[in-house]
Amino acid sequence: MSSKGNITLLNFFVFNSTYGPREGEEDKKIMYFYPPNTDIDTKIKKIGLCEAVVKFTETFSDKPCESVHTQKTRQIYFEPEKEFWVVMTVSIPYVEKSKDGSQYLEYHEEDVQDRVYKAILQQAYRMFQFFNGTFYDVLTCNDNDVKVLQKRLDHFYSRDSLLFLLLLRSGLDQDDMRIMYKYLTTSLFPTYLEQELQGGSVTSPARMTATHAGVHYGNSSDPLYRYIYFNHMNLAQKTTVHVDNKKSNVNIPVETLRLLSDISSDMSKNCEDGETIVKTVSDSWIVGKKSDEREFYVVINQKNSNLIEINDEVKKLCATNFNSIFFLD
Amino acid sequence: MAEGKEAEQVSTSDSDQADFIEPETPVEIKNSMLVTTDSYEHIDYQDLESPVYDSHPSGIIHAIVRSGSVEESTDTNDEELHTQCEESNEDASSNELSSKEISDVTEEVSKPEVPELNSAEFDEDDVQTPEWRNQKKHVFILSEAGKPVYSRHGTEDKLVTIMGVMQALVSFVHDNGKDALRCIIAGEHRFVFLVKDPLILVGVSRGQDSTQQVLLQLSYVYNQVLSVLTYSTLHRIFKQRRNYDLRRLLSGAEKFLDNLLNMFDSEPSFLLGAVECLPLDSVIRDMIAQSIVQHAKVKDLVFALILANNKLVTLVRMKKYYLHPMDLHLIINLVNASESFKAAESWTPICLPKFDSSGFLQAHISYLDESCQTCLLLLSVDRESFFTLSDCKNRIKDRLLKYNGLKAISDSLTRTSYSIQQCGISDLRHFLYKSRSTAQYTSPELEAPYLSQEEQERLFGLYHYLHHRIHTTARPLKILYSVGPHETLLGWITQGFELYAVFGPLVTKPAAIHAINRLLRWIKKEEDRLFILNSVTF
């Protein structure tokens, strides 16, 4: 494989169509645009497409547009406040392959999971909101001067080097492992972040990163399995799926993490309790359980086990580590 | 006793596929494949969009015609060209208008922001009615110039604006960065785009279908269009006139598209890429096949098959050629959608895109019984052979009457499918079993609690979910066991088969596995009846 493309951040922007309704005023819709050195025509074009997509989906759906998939890119949409859209585009990873002597790129679109990047986008917005208030707050406090909002956005997202961009750049460029991990600890379990923000324990972005990296170590004496447990009610969590940022010590393959996210996403669609057990083509087992507000995931690498044995294994694990917690059998 | 043994098998299994039982494939292939498949098993969903997968003419029809009788082989292409000429003459008068139209469209296309989408523009359209908006699945076909060709719901004329938007979105993404629009997600809605030059197909679904599943359906829809027109004609038309109104050529074919889309909603065969056979004693099935072999030994006859209630009774083929499941589904759709075949023997052209998208086969279609349930299809490359094939049909029918073949078919039909109780497995509610090597599947009839339309759709949604999660290209699975609020699901893939089973929500894992083992054993025992294992050739 001669060349390879990773997931990279292509752009990130905030717009509000009500600010430039007339032709020739399209630039007024732009609240923020990254990368900042993009020429104005491109900005207007990108936003124009988003507007068209949003309108188009409204013809059929009452719910807002969430994402646009193209062969080479993934665009995530988020409307945190009425008429304000926050949009992020990332590239789809690819590898160069050759077939019958001719080269072509094979895009791996399933490596980009909407849910993960939506969480990042929401986080980016929440962080702005945490420090500045909502977009409308900013406008109200400043005589509805949109320039103030634009400045704040620019200041927050570009100058302050913010965590968010760090997260995106570093995360997306070389190590989407870290981003997956971040997702699992902050967004799969969103209340955790919520608590962090509202509880006032976050004083600086640096502190926040530190918090997220500080992971509870569970009983990992048995290398055969890794688990994550989270209780949405009391925010208790316990995990042996940890990533050490410094050593980039990776416990389980990123494919497995993605699968974990798939399973979690499937189960969250079903509001009620449930359990999912899967065996991958590489013969590892993943067990996901959801009970009340509790979620629990185990990855077991025992090639020759069968479903019953895996089930017993998980029961044992629960008994030793989560003695008092009831799980659906 | 037997249970003890199974339990043992379960716990001692250690080989790769022995997650539940010994890795024996219940259905063995004795002969070469029946319907299928070389390329088929790889219907790698990614391929659906790649131009390579685009049903390019294979030229088989030509080859057969040439190798056979040369005398009166009127070339298919000539004929098409002929029709084509008439077509263009007819259009000549409107040529000026059309070039203006083209320039209008190009203007529209080059406008990056997409025609101004003020909501006022949608006002007089169908788009406004709640019934239209609330449809579970929409399918649209439009030309690359944005002209409406087909819409599953509503009339195309009233959907000009929305189809124009679809076209603009596709071309905008294409023009900016040589990219391809694949899908848009909004809430429950999934908008899937498939560009098959010179057509754009769009599916809007708010069901359980994954993007890939909608894509597969769109490829079927595209193939259905080819089946009526052929690839060659479709391309020639749009090469001559980019702005052509294809509805003219497709008038009368809408019912096939409608019917195909309705079948997607109720038949697992499309999801599985497999065909269901009518359960029949293998001796009787052989007799039926032999009747065809003996009485339809006609030069240029490529395929002969009998269908009963959308199920395959038998298939006889020319030695070198296979019938792809996708093509067979189109044949089933043709029969299913047409009442007219019941009135009289028919002679109709059909293009089978996987077989050869460049031309038509001629199909002699007739029902063999009074009640019009058993349908015989004789597909030939010789378009002068109606009377010959009609004779064949009479002889086949006589023989089937004489040896009670038709009675066996109608008996099997009155028993409809089979009840899950026949498998003798109490915890199991329903299942789909696909034999991968033969591209055939079997499934019991739907019983309580899946009797209402609503519950059936929900069950179907579960199967779509199972299939999707297991076949995700980047993260395929061997086993998926999932306990939900209303049922427990099991999906299991091995080299030989795919099994999707539905249990009650309270079943225990040992009970479920026990049930699966018994089911596989039952299928093994019944395989002669449930599947066509012998490939019969002329």
UniProtKB/TrEMBL annotation, chain A:
- The residue ranges of the CCZ1/INTU/HPS4 third Longin domain are 222-317
Cited Pfam families: Intu_longin_1, Intu_longin_3
Any idea where the CCZ1/INTU/HSP4 first Longin domain is?
10-133
Q: Which family does it belong to?
A: Belongs to the CCZ1 family.
Q: What is the official name of this protein in its record?
A: Vacuolar fusion protein CCZ1 homolog
Source organism (scientific name): Tegillarca granosa
TrEMBL record, chain B:
**FUZ/MON1/HPS1 third Longin domain location, by residue?**
427-527
Entries under Pfam families matching the protein: Fuz_longin_1, Fuz_longin_2, Fuz_longin_3
Q: Which InterPro entries match?
A: FUZ/MON1/HPS1_longin_1 (IPR043972), FUZ/MON1/HPS1_longin_2 (IPR043971), FUZ/MON1/HPS1_longin_3 (IPR043970), Longin-like_dom_sf (IPR011012), Mon1 (IPR004353)
Ranges for domain FUZ/MON1/HPS1 second Longin: 299-396
Tell me where on the tree of life, at the top rank, the source sits.
Answer: Eukaryota
Annotated ranges, domain FUZ/MON1/HPS1 first Longin:
137-260
UniProt region (Disordered), positions on chain: 1-25, 68-131
Provide ranges: composition bias, Basic and acidic residues: 98-114
> What's this protein's function?
Plays an important role in membrane trafficking through the secretory apparatus.
Q: Which family does it belong to?
A: Belongs to the MON1/SAND family.
Give the protein's recorded name. Answer: Vacuolar fusion protein MON1 homolog
Organism of this sequence = Tegillarca granosa (Malaysian cockle)
